[in-house]
Structures are given as structure tokens and as C-alpha cells.
Amino acid sequence: MTETRFHAMPGGRQIAYRFTPGQGPALVFLPGYMSDMAGGKATAVFEMAQATGLSCLLLDYSGCGQSPGDFADGTLSRWKEEILALIEALELQEVILAGSSMGGWLMLLAGLALGERLKGLIGIAAAPDFTEWGIPQMDKALLADGETIWEDNPYGPEPTPTHPGFWADGQANRQLEGEIAIDCPVRLLHGQRDPDVPWDISLQLAEKLRSADVQVTLIKDGDHRLSRESDIALLLRTVAELVLPRAGAAD
Fold it and tell me: What PANTHER family does the record point to (predicted)?
């Protein structure tokens, strides 16, 4: 097991990460909202990379998992900055981003910033723009007034907060309203029994991406997490399809 390390950001933030060097483009797994790098999908991707000699980076956004900080300070822009800082610090020249739920929004923002270094995207129940379509108008008004809203959390005992800073930053980073200038191969996986992110979001995303190499895989009985053994197997096959040919070409 590769040890957890910490990257120091300007201003004192410490970002927890795990990295295994290897061939080909580096896989970078981006967790969902209030999730971390200890999740089942992230762990499976990391273990696959270690077993096949691929490069892989896991990280916890500030205020999440092992990274210190206040979750209430977290925004997409802040977390994107942390992702890009780690990619730079580790000198990763080619990158494939895999994003789960909110991580699927962050993969677009980070991918746009990476430019030609971006070699692929894998979205797992990707949730771009959920501050727009996922929040009722009444709650948007509360957030706009500076109030935090709380929702029932089906995945844990504590309610899920949405803080006004995160919401405002999300609204400023919406991606589905115009063309997304990304040209690399993109694979989108989505369960059709996802109660949190409608699977139509992946279809909308596929339409907005400029890339001609976009494939959407719908799992008819899949839920939001897509963490069953069969779901993990599909994710790893998808990773292998994108990464292994490039890793072979780099030999």
C-alpha cells in the first residue's frame, strides 16, 4: 500500500494524496461531494494501476478525508486549483481524469485547464452544473442570501450541507450551457436508477463536449454510486480501454 503524503499549497493548505508512478498517462481519480480517496472506486483504480504498472494519483480535496481544512470553505475553483497543483508538483505530462459525481464536474474544469496534456476523461455519474438543476428555486434564494441549506443524506447519518460559497462558485462554473472545448476521448458511465443525478445529464454532457470520441454507457439497474462488483469491473475495463493502448505506445 502506497503511503499517504501531503502537498503544501500556497497559504498553508495541506492536500493529502497517494501516488504510484508508472507507464503511460497518469490516471487521476476525482472523488464526489464530501467523498475521499478511500472510496471503493478510487481504491480499485489505484490497485489496478499498481498491478499493471500504470501511473495513478488519488487525492482528498481540502476539508475532505485526510486533508485538513473546513469543508465550508470548499469550492469547485478551490478544489480545481488543488488538483492542478498536484499534477504540476508530480510533473505529470499526460493525464486521464476520472471523476465520480461532482468529480465529473471537476474533471471538466481541470481538463480545460490542462489543454493538450489531457488525454482522456472518464465520468462516473458525472454531475456538472448540479448547483443549477439539483437545487430547488426556494433553496437557491436562501443560498443567494448567504444561508447554508441542509438535505437528508442517504449515504450517512449526518445531513448534507450546501454552503453559499460553494453554490455561488458552482453557478459561475456551469458547463452545460454551451460547447465544452475538450477534444480527447471521453467515456461516461451512468446508472439509470440513479436517484441523485438523472442519467440524462450524461447525455447532455456528451452533446456539449466538442470531442467526436464520446461514448455513454447506461447501466439499467445501476444506482448513483456504481460501486457493485459488476460496476467496478465496468469502470476498470473502461480505464484499461483508454490507458493501456497509450501506455503501450509509450514503451
Answer: MYCOPHENOLIC ACID ACYL-GLUCURONIDE ESTERASE, MITOCHONDRIAL (PTHR16138), PALMITOYL-PROTEIN THIOESTERASE ABHD10, MITOCHONDRIAL (PTHR16138:SF7)
The residues, ordered by sequence, that sit 6+ positions from 95 with a Cβ below 8 Å of its Cβ are 25, 26, 28, 87, 114, 117, 118, 119
Residue of 101, 129, 169, 231 with catalytic role: 101
Domain 5-128+184-249 grouped into CATH 3.40.50.1820 = yes
Query: Which one of the listed residues 55, 194, 202, 231 is annotated catalytic?
Result: 194
- 194 part of the active site: yes
Closest CA to 241 of 174, 164, 186, 202: 186
Residues 48-57 have pLDDT tens digits of 999 999 999 9
- Give residue 195's Cα distance to chain centre: 18
Catalytic residue among 7, 163, 190, 224: 224
Tell me: the pLDDT tens digits for 158-188?
Answer: 899 999 999 999 999 999 999 999 999 999 9
Cell of 3: 503511503
62 has catalytic annotation: no
Contact status, residue 220 vs residue 249, Cβ threshold 8 Å: no
